[in-house]
Amino acid sequence: MKQKGLKTDHEMNYKKTNRPFQTVFLLTGALIFAAFAIFWHNGGGTVHSAGPNPVDTGAVTQKELDEINTFEPGAFENPERCAACHREIYDAWRGSKHRFAWEDPFYQPDYLKASHETEGFTDVFCGECHAPVARRTRQLPPPDGSLFDDISKAGVSCDFCHTVKEVVEPVNVKNISDPGRIKRGPRGDGRSPIHDVQFSDIHTEAAFCGSCHNVVHPASGAVVIDTYSDWEAGPYAREGITCQDCHMTPGPGVSKNPGKSSFMAKERAHVATHFFPGGSVFFQERAGNDEQAARAREMLEAAAVIETETETFENGTALLVRVKNVGAGHKIPTGVTYIRKMWLEVTATDAAGEVVFASGHVAEDNRVDPEAVLYQKIFRDGAGNLTPKSWLAEEIAYDRRIPPKGHDEQVFQIPANSGGKYRVTVRLMYRSMSQDAADALGIDGLRVPAVEMARAEIELG
Ligand code: HEC
Ligand code: HEC
Ligand code: HEC
Ligand code: HEC
Ligand code: HEC
Question: Is residue 434 lining ligand 5, measured as CB closer than 6 Å?
C-alpha cells in the first residue's frame, strides 16, 4: 500500500541524532534571525516579497503600531476587578487557555528555547500574543517575565480584548489597543456603574480572533498558524458563522446561552460564553480543570465522522476510509499542528481475535506508528530539514489536514480472509502534543494520552 504521507517521526528522529545536520541547522537559524531582527525592529514593510506568503503590513508599519500600542504599566485593568460583576464570565475565562497564554507549562519551555536559540530575537514576537498586556506596557523584555505584574501574568485577559478598538490586519496581533473607561463589546445598550460600554462590530467578527489566530513568520513568510485565513476561505465564512458562534457558545456547534452577563445586566437571548474550548483535553486534565477538559473532548468529538467503503478482491479487501470534517470551521487539526498529532488507527481481527492488519498503533514508548496516516503540518528549516521549531520555519514540508466541510480519503489493503469474519475498527485519534514534542519540553515522564475523535466498526467476509 502506498500512502501519501512522509515518514515524519522517523525522519525527525534521524535528523535529531545527526550531528553535521545540526550544525547547518543552527547556522541557518542564525541567518533567519538576522533577517527576523531587521524586519521586526525596522517596521517590517521591506520583507514583503521575502517568502511565498508575504506579510502585508497594510498602511501602518510595525514600528508605528509599536508606538501607538505603548502604555504605562497598570493601563489595563486586572481581571479580578471584572470578576466582581461578571462572575460567570470570569470563572469561564479563568480556566481557558487564554488565561494561561503566558504561564502555560507547554508554552514556556518552547518560548525559552526559541529565545535561547535566537539570542532573544523572538521574545517580543512571541510575547505580543502570549503576554499582550506585558508587551504593551513594556514589561517584556526581559524574556523571563521578572518584570510582569499580575495583570501581565494573566495572559490574554478581559481588558486586553475589550479595549481593542481596531484590527489593522488579522495577522501577528496587528490590532490597536485603547485601554481606559470604555469597554467595547457586542452590545452598547447596557449600563455599568464602573465603566462605559460601546458597541464594537469587530468584537462580533472573526477578524478579531484572527489578529492572533493567524501567525506568519516575520522573516521567512512561512505560515505558522492559519486558523483565520483558513476559516475566511471556507464555507463557514460564506454562511456568516464566526469563531465566536462555535467557541463562545455552550456547545460545540452554534448554540445559545440565555441570561445576564452580570447581576446588574439586562436579560439577553444569548450571553457570550468565555470557555474558548479547543482540543486541549490533556492540558486541562493536567491543570485539574475537569469541566474544561470535558468541553475540549466534546469539541474534538464534534469535529469529524468516519465513513468506510469496501471492495473485495481475490487477495484481500480494499478498505476505503473517508474522514469528514463536519464540525470545525477550519481545517482539522488547526493551530500549532506542528506539535500536535492527529492520525488514523486501523485494526482488523479475525474470528479468533488475532490481529490480521494494523496501522497507526501506539508503541511501548508512546510513539505513534511512523507509517500511520498523519494529519498535521510540518515545517522545513533553511537547511532543508524537518523541524518542530516554529521559529526556524522556512517553508511547509508536509501539510495533510482536512478542510472545513471537506474530507480526506485513504485506502488500506486488508489481507484475504481465510474463512470466518473479520472485524475492522477505524479510529481517528488526536494528541495535543506528539510524544516527540513532549520529550523536547524536558518535563520528566510526560506521556501524552490520545483522545478518540471518531470511530467506525465494520465486518468483512
Ligand atoms: C460594578 C459592576 C461591573 C464591573 C466591576 C465591571 N462591569 Fe462590565 N458591565 C457591567 C454591566 C452592568 C454591564 C451591562 C451588561 C448588560 O446590560 O448586558 C457591563 C457590560 C460590559 C461589557 C459589554 C459591553 C457591550 O455593551 O457590549 C463588557 C465588554 C464589559 N462589561 C467588560 C468589563 C471588563 C473588562 C471589566 C473589568 C475591567 C468590567 N466589565 C467590570 C458591570 C460591571
Ligand atoms: C480573547 C478575547 C476575550 C477575552 C479574554 C474576554 N472576552 Fe469578553 N468577549 C469577547 C468577545 C469577542 C465578545 C463578543 C462575543 C460575541 O459577540 O459573540 C465578548 C463578550 C463579552 C461580554 C458581553 C456578553 C454578552 O453577550 O452580553 C462581556 C460582559 C464580557 N465579554 C466580559 C468579559 C470579561 C469580564 C472577561 C474576563 C473575565 C472577558 N470578557 C474576557 C472577547 C473576550
Ligand atoms: C491577543 C491574542 C488572542 C486573541 C485576540 C484571541 N486569542 Fe485565542 N488564543 C491565543 C493564544 C496565545 C492561545 C494559546 C494559549 C496557550 O495555550 O498557550 C489561544 C487559545 C485559544 C483557544 C484554545 C485552543 C486549545 O488548544 O484548546 C481557542 C479555542 C481560542 N483561542 C479561540 C479564540 C477566539 C474564538 C477568539 C476571538 C473571540 C480568540 N481566541 C482571540 C491568543 C488570542
Ligand atoms: C463551525 C464551528 C467552528 C467555527 C466556525 C470555528 N471553530 Fe475552531 N474548532 C471547532 C471545533 C469542533 C474544534 C475541535 C477540533 C480541533 O481541535 O481541530 C475547533 C478547534 C479550534 C482550536 C483548537 C485547535 C487545536 O486543537 O489546537 C482553535 C485554536 C480554534 N478552533 C480557533 C478558531 C478560530 C480562531 C475560529 C475563527 C477564525 C474558529 N475556531 C472557528 C469548531 C469551530
Ligand atoms: C500572532 C499570535 C502568536 C504569536 C506571535 C505566537 N503565538 Fe504561540 N500560539 C498562538 C495561538 C493562537 C495558539 C493556540 C493555537 C492552538 O491551540 O492550536 C498558540 C499556541 C502555542 C503553543 C501551544 C501551547 C499548548 O498548550 O499547546 C506553543 C508551544 C506556542 N504557541 C509557542 C509560541 C512561540 C515559541 C512563539 C514565538 C516564536 C509563539 N508561540 C508566537 C498565537 C501566537
Answer: no
Same-domain check for residues 233 and 306 = no
β-bridge mates for residue 307, sequence order: 322
CA dist 4 and 154 (Å) reads: 42
- Domain count of the chain? 2
Are residues 133 and 53 located together in one domain of the fold?
A: yes
Task: Tell me, in angstroms, the distance from the centre of ligand 5 to residue 236's CA.
Answer: 24
CA 304 to ligand 2 center in whole angstroms: 28
Do 224 and 361 lie in one domain? The reply is no
Assess if residue 25 is contained within a domain: no
Predicted TM-score (pTM) of the model is 0.92
In a domain, 34, yes or no: no
The answer to whether the CB of 129 is under 6 A from ligand 3 is yes
Q: Rounded CA gap, 280 and 227, in Å? A: 16
Residue 208 sits in which domain range? 43-276
Chain segment 66-119, per-residue pLDDT in tens: 999 999 999 999 999 999 999 999 999 999 999 999 999 999 999 999 999 999
Q: To the nearest 10°, the Cα dihedral for 221, 227, 229, 231?
A: 170
> Same structural domain for residues 334 and 213?
no
Per-residue pLDDT at 418: 72
Residues 186 and 177: their CA atoms lie apart, in Å, by 17
